[in-house]
Every structure is written in C-alpha cells, then in structure tokens.
Amino acid sequence: MRPLFLILVLIVGGVFGEPTKENLEAREWFQDSKFGLFVHWGVYSVLGRGEWVMEKADAAYKSIPEYHNQPIGKITIEDYEPLAGQFNPDQFDPVAWVALAKATGMKYITITSKHHDGFAMWGTKQNGWNIVDATPYKKDVLKLLAEECEKEGIKLFFYYSHLDWHDKNYFPRGWTGRFAGRPEEGDFEKYLDFMDAQLTELLTEYGPVAGIWFDGMWDKKDADWRLEKTYALIHSLQPAALVGNNHHLTPFEGEDFQSFEKDLPGRNTAEFNQTSISLLPLETCETMGNAWGYNYTETSFKSTKELIQYLVKAAGNNANFLLNVGPRPDGTIQPEFVERLQEMGQWMAKNGESIYGTRGGPIAPEVWGVSTQKEGRVFIHLLDWDKNTFPLPLAAEAAFLFSDGTQLPIIDGEIQLPTLDPIDTIIELKLVSQS
After folding, report:
1. Pick from 323, 357, 318: which is nearest to 337 by CA?
2. What sign for the dihedral angle of Cα 95, 100, 102, 107?
C-alpha cells in the first residue's frame, strides 16, 4: 500500500491539477482499453537502422555492401535531408493498419508525428521538413490514418518529440544531436513557440485526438520546457485529450498518465525509468525486437508468448501495454510483426474479458503471475507455475477455469489445477461476499 504521506505529497503538490469532466472520462476510457499499437515511422526508416540512426554511429553497417555509399551514424543535417527524397511509402494502407490493430484487440494507436530528427509526418505549415513538402509521396499520412481511425472507432494519439536534432533554435544543445551541423546559437523560446504551433495544427486539423505522447525532454531535463503553457494549450484545444510524457520523472501538473519505457511500473531494468508510481493511469511501452524504428538487420524478436505475458503482467500492474511496430519505408509492416499481432489477437478474442476494463487485482504481482479485477470479479493469471495445486487466496468460496467455466475443486485450501496452459492459466474466483 502506498504510504499516506506520499499520497498527500502528490495531492498537495498539485501533480494532478484540476482535470475537466471530459479529461477524467478519457482517463477512465484509457485505463479500460489496456492495449494499444505504437508506431515509430519516419524518414529514418529509409536507412533501415532504427529511429536513432542520425545520432548513433554503428561501424557494423560499414560491412554491408548496399550501405557503402550511405551515411553511417553521426549524420549531419546536410547529409540526412536528402533521405527524404527516397522516402516514398506508396504501399501505406491506413485501412490495413487499422484493421490489423482492431484484429489484435488494440483500442488505440500512438504514432510518431515528429521524432528526434524533427521530420514531421504531416503537412506542417511551420517548415518544409515534412512528408508533404520534402518527399515524393506528397501525402499527409496522419490525415489518412486519423480519418480511418475515426471511421473504425480506434482512438489516435500523436507522439511528439520535445527533442529536435534539425531545428536550429533547439539551443543550448542537450546531450544528443551535437553532430548535426547546426550553428552554435539559437533561441529556445522560438523553438518552443514552433513546437506549440505544430501541436496546434495537430489538435485542430485532425479531428478528435486522444492524446499527445511526449518524448525527449530527458535530453535537457533541467531546461524550462514551458510545460504548463503547452499542457494548457493542449487541454484547451481538446479537453478530452490526454497528456503523457516519457521524461522518466515523477509526473508534472497537467499530465494525465504516467509512462514507463521497456519496463513494468515501478521497475527499472532499463536503468532510466522512474521507480515511483503515481496515482495517474499507467502505460508501459515495449518493442518486438530492440529498435523502435525499422531495422532490417534485426532477426531476433520476442515470441508471441512473451508479448502476451507482458500484456497480462502490465494489466496485473494496473497498466496499459503499448506495443511497437516500425513500418518499412514503403509503408508496410514486416511479416514477423503481423504474425505476432494476429496471434495476440486470437488470444485476446478468447481471454480479453480478463484484461479489458480491469485494474490491478487484490493479489500483488509475483514471479508466478498476476491478478486482475473488475466489477467484483477476480482473475488469477498463472504465467509461471509448475504445480498441480494453487493456494486459495482471499476469501473465495469457488474457483473456475476461465477458458471453459469448469469449477475447480478446492481441497484443504488448495485449488486443484487442470493441465496448465503454456501461456496463461486463468482462474476466476467467486468471492465469499458475492451472492
């Protein structure tokens, strides 16, 4: 249980501000949804070496013949900008993307509108460094995706990087982007004005926006990012829009959910996450391989079992799971990702009732698994259990196998288990207090 003094600090400190009715309802929807699709896609996909290719040197690529004449890491703006001329995602099909997300059981999509390279995936009027003005594709993919999401009832979030390796006014520099070839001068206030102008476009020209998912503030964590002004702008333009920020810090006033990157809430195996857990809705994001953006050299991916179990663990830790794909430069999603998403969708079609609309259960997460709960129902998820009995937790009078409703015998306080499911054996408890 969270210490009372910490709760008081969070409340008195104003971490949660005064959210509107629309905002509170959106937070509730968000927590009920549990599962979303993360999309990292941009001009960096042309090189097929992940979303940080402009910044990270990687000598291994110099041994790949087809990349001998391509820039290798630490890429300057002068060398990076021509890649936009090769970015022509003529196979992008928003109908197929949204259909895949729905078939997977996902309730929302979060897509990179602008990553750290500053490239806008919409026709921004603030500069020409965008998919409409700088590429042969000439189409606004965010507009196409937003229209299909609204048609199919999938909510849409826009990822937006606070960090920008392209804009000259992003100055003083943070700890990244020092090799981009920008002048060593700039006006950070002008950059923040530019950022707010781009956010205004996203929040006024693309229909209902479920939220803004910020990243990159860690590049200059001590800078004055004008969060209060930016968050107020977002909430004024779309009161139901949720604000999240992957800054790895305790949430600030105006934020509506807390993000954890490649970690479950409270963990820090990635060695950069905040270990304290706020009272806000929670979300954890993870990749299928290692990179977020398309990396054609990756051949090792998490199994469907690993991904399903991560989803279940997230729900048991009271969090959503945002699962990433990095589309190829032609706009298609690689088959390894599609296969896993389809298999997850098949599992969710059978077992989603124990995930959707739940909160973390009354039994704390353990090595063996987690519990979830909703509307007086408690689900035990046995993910790593090798015994044929399980100690009866809580004051339960009956236990049922969720998959087919079979009542399981309880002998001397032990639930007698059937043959265990290799992914997740789900047991639903009937509590004594229930009629």
Report:
1. 323
2. negative
Amino acid at site 36: G
Could you give the C-alpha distances from 65 to 69, 74, 83, 312, 315, in angstroms and in order? 8, 19, 18, 42, 45
Task: Show the DSSP H helices in 162-218 as ranges.
Answer: 188-204
As given in the structure block, the two tokens for residue 352 are 């989603």
In the chain, the amino acid numbered 120 is A
Q: Which residues pair with 427 in a beta bridge?
A: 380, 401
pTM: 0.92
C-alpha to C-alpha distances, 347 to 117, 168, 176, 309, 352, nearest whole angstrom:
37, 48, 40, 11, 8
pLDDT band at 164 (very low <50, low <70, confident <90, very high): very high
Confidence of residue 15 (pLDDT cuts 50, 70, 90): very low
What CATH fold (topology level) applies to the domain 20-358? Answer: TIM Barrel (3.20.20)
Domain spanning 361-431: which superfamily? Golgi alpha-mannosidase II (2.60.40.1180)
Vertex 134 angle, CA 123 and 92, to 5°? 70
Euclidean distance between CA atoms 75 and 246, whole angstroms: 25
